[in-house]
Amino acid sequence: MLLSLKNVSKTYKNGVKALDNVSIDIHAGMFGLLGPNGAGKSSLMRTIATLQAPDGGSIHLDDLDILNNKIEFRKTLGYLPQEFGVYPKMSAHDLLHYFAQLKGISNSSERNAIVDKALEVTNLSDVRHKHVAGYSGGMKQRFGIAQLLLNDPKLIIVDEPTAGLDPAERHRFLNVLREIGTNHIVIFSTHIVDDVKELCTDMAILNGGKILAQNTPKNLVKALSGTIWKTTVTKDQLPTYEASYNIISSSFDEDSNLVIRVMNDTQPAPEFIPTDASLEDVYFTTLKQEQQIELNS
Ligand SMILES: Nc1ncnc2c1ncn2[C@@H]1O[C@H](COP(=O)(O)OP(=O)(O)OP(=O)(O)O)[C@@H](O)[C@H]1O
Q1: Which domain of life is it from (predicted)?
Q2: How many beta carbons lie within 10 A of that of residue 55, not counting itself?
């Protein structure tokens, strides 16, 4: 299974270029689309979901030209938007049966099996008779997944599902995605680096509507190996270090020391010690390099 985008661009009427010549191949498994607010993630998701037309480019799911075969494509698509509707006071069980009927699954034993499976995969079997309207944020997100699993989609698109979830709910939700990611293409957008680190077999970093990097999280981290250094500084020293070194990030450690991380091919100064590269380093250096290219152009 392969989703292939070639030169996909989108400029909104207000002149914002949300997608700038995006070309990317996405295989079965969990694909993480990582980018800051306004990067173009939702625009890309909506475009792949055929909810908005790009100005140019093509998108194929295997041999199917999806932009010219929307109806056929949508039968194989499960899309969970960033914000989805308000639910009526109906139980998850009844609501899923209702949606399954709308999707044309009229045979009741077939429908029972499909609904039971969707509830099981999303870990909602125990709360199937509770009203969805009263569910927590995380349960609602999982219900959204249960709903899109009803028609056994090949491609699942989930737009920033972990935003606003507490750590336990986030963990539960990521586990559900991990389970369905084994036999579907799941594209999942987030601005949380840890989501991608924990979950994805392939990833891309998007900013300014452009794909800045694509690879497995492991390979991206490996590419930075040997170039990341850290040292502790005082708050007063920070501006001097900022002026002299390529600081990727700064944060406080468990002893409340301010630790800076720097990218450099060789040891920047004697006080720096080498440290393992992280996916966060990859994310920040990629965004920073892009910023520098923009400034120099
Ligand atoms: N319908 C629209 N009309 C005009 N501009 C838009 C529209 N939708 C998005 N934009 C702009 O396009 C750019 C990309 O937005 P998009 O929502 O795709 O980014 P995002 O990465 O999903 O961000 P967020 O995480 O904040 O949702 C932003 O500058 C946004 O303001």
Answers
A1: Bacteria
A2: 11
Q: Which domain holds residue 78?
A: 2-214
Same domain, 109 and 256: no
Domains identified in the chain, total number: 2
Cα–Cα distance, 252 to 239 (Å, whole number): 16
Task: Give ipTM to 2 decimals.
Answer: 0.96
Q: Whose CA is nearest to atom 16 of ligand 1?
A: 40
Å from CA of 180 to ligand 1 middle: 28
State how far the Cα of 183 lies from the Cα of 220, in Å rounded to an integer. Answer: 24
| Residue 294, CA atoms < 13 Å, CB-side half-sphere | 10
Write out the H or E segment, with its range, that includes residue 111.
Answer: helix 108-121
Confidence (pTM): 0.89
Q: Ligand 1 test: best mutation among 43, 52, 210, most atoms within 8 Å of CB?
A: 43
**What 3 state SS string does 150-170 have?**
CCCCCEEEEECCCCCCCHHHH
CATH number at residue 13: 3.40.50.300
The number of residues making up the chain comes to 297
pLDDT digits (tens, 9 = 90+) for 52-95: 999 999 999 999 999 999 999 998 999 988 776 667 788 999 99
Q: How far apart are CA 170 and CA 175, in angstroms?
A: 9
Q: Are 228 and 261 in contact (CB under 8 A)?
A: yes
Are 180 and 145 in contact, with CB atoms under 8 Å apart?
yes
Residue-wise pLDDT tens digits, 104-130? 888 999 999 999 999 998 989 999 999
User: What is d(CA 51, CA 43) in angstroms, rounded to the nearest whole number?
Assistant: 10
Q: What is the Å distance from ligand 1's center to 185 Cα?
A: 24
